[in-house]
Design goal:
Number of strands: 21
Strand content: 15-25%
Radius of gyration: 22 Å
Strand order of the largest sheet: 6-5-4-3-2-1-21
Shape: globular
Number of helices: 12
Largest sheet: 7 strands, mixed
Amino acid sequence: MRFRNLTRRREIGANCYLLESGKNRVVLDAGMHPKEVGFNALPDFGALPHETADALFITHAHHDHIGALPVLMRKQPKSPVFMTEPTGEITSAMLHNSVNVMTSQREEQSIHEYPLFTHRELDENRAQYVYRDLERPFEVPNSDLMASFHDAGHIMGSAGIMIRQNGSSLFYTGDVNFENQTITRAADFPTEGIDVLVVETTRGTYERPADYSRKGEKERLAALIRETFDANGSVLIPVFALGKTQEVMLMLHELREEGLIPEMPLRIGGLGTKVTVLYDHYADRVRRNYPGFRLLEDVSMLVPPRRKRGPGRPQIDYQPRTIYALSSGMMTEGTTSNSFANKFIDNPRNAVAFVGYTDPLSPGYRLRTAKAGEKIKLSADLPAVELHARIESFDLSAHATREQIAEYVEKVKPKKLLMVHGEEPSQAWFSARFAETLNRDTEIIRPETHAPIDLW
């Protein structure tokens, strides 16, 4: 069995990995790079000949893990795509949204190769989606491989993937969280019988404070909301439409029920609403906290989204004493949170609360690290705005901390450890830690693009 990294660089980006054994080939994830555009955003599929993959596997429906799936399926038209049912249904919604985004970018940014796929193609692709339950091993067609999914605790439907062959095993974590979130329960991963471990290293540079608690972060957020309410201002929470929107909705509901924030309306964006419909659909059928709780019905502070009129996305109007949970979480140009912030951050009564990761090159990061009074340009087509709003950050990440991932690896003690989904400094931290904690029986590998790695 061999492993090849099909990402173009060693970083968080277009996640995609190839396993080869004789004539058997399977692919793990097929993402698009969030910071690139056009063909440069795709993985490099050059090492994978057309119509040779026995199966494609998807861990979860975030764009950096599914964005290139339709392009890969065009090259592998007969390959089944294995994933959990919630991941498949969310994948369909997210990819249809990608078509809309790429169509707009073709016109606005003259990216002529966009859209890379069509709505009709996505509808046809669904015939190849094959859903599998957690913890239920199954055969990979036309191969001697067995596979199973295991709850990753990251977002709804997320799963790590176990691949077994003739007594040897590989486990790929995908994105993982080892602690309970508001809706999503902590990962339930195997710890024994794993020869090769392929692990994410997203938060390798982040050192969590010794006195951290999730409860404490929620109470800090509540205090910010109360103080902003008293100042007759509003709170903007940039969120990812998938995962973070739903976590924030339920967290705010909890805070309101506990009397920690005042009664005030909550508004969310259009794609966030579409994904929340799916979260509610599976409310009784997935492993989660608050089983049966339906966000769109049971969060009383939520203001129903207004129907869209005419072309383009509906406008979200500013109102005082309102919470806006708008995507994207990194405030990418052209998104609702980006355009809304441009008319929001000059007001000293308002506050922006960051609750997840922001890439250092993103508009969200620029705002997050700006000083009061500084002029901020959030988008090329919008004027710079002087920052007077309060900016706060909260550690409510859906990714495990570096220490939690390291402890999992040290418990598994694999023969080979492959580190992926992390920037160079993050992987360097893990390498230094494992040099101290893992004995010489574990080979630590940082896969280069396309370089074949023999696993067993």
